[in-house]
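Recall the central idea of this unit: under ordinary conditions, the amino acid sequence of a chain determines the structure it adopts. In this exercise we apply that idea directly, starting from the sequence alone.
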Amino acid sequence: MSDKSGSPPSVTTLEAERAARGQREKVGGSGPAASGDVTHTLSPDKRAAAGKALRERVPRAQHGAWKKGESRPDPIDILHAADADRLPDLVPIRYGRMLQSPFAFYRGAAGVMAADLAQTPVSGIHVQACGDCHLMNFGGFATPERNIIFDINDFDETLPAPWEWDAATSQPACHSHGHGSGTGLSRHRACLDGDLPFRPGLHT
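Accordingly, the structure predicted from this sequence is:
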């Protein structure tokens, strides 16, 4: 397995892929292909009903708290494992940048987040996830139709994974960035409210 440049995938990406496979096995599916033959043939109303049935199986309240498992890997070990395919002379620089703020650490610790998310409840709906869904991986760019859109623009950690993972990583990123950026309470609040447009759809 390699990316378009021919380089092997990063340790962080491999860890996230293993975690996602484990989640698929827990819910008895194999990712997008397992649900494709159902979701693409049902009517919108039936898809909505199927989604509500999954929500009853995994209520939103189950996502409201996180507890460290007894077998949780040491985050430092995860970070060190990810250094195996990096240039040794640049690793201290990387950690120096991660020490600058909680958000900077968050940006450099996708493997830690993936390991924690692997233990969280999921509905079983898998998507091609960003895998590293923080603010700096979003931006504005032009489409072939000459429209300007705001969307994810970094896919170096993308993988098939539960849809909940990107939702779970984006809000902590907003919080850590707003809290540590010194932009003031109003902008911090606006950052945390960034998911407001999605709430009606998620609620149903």
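Residues 11-58+70-203 form one domain.
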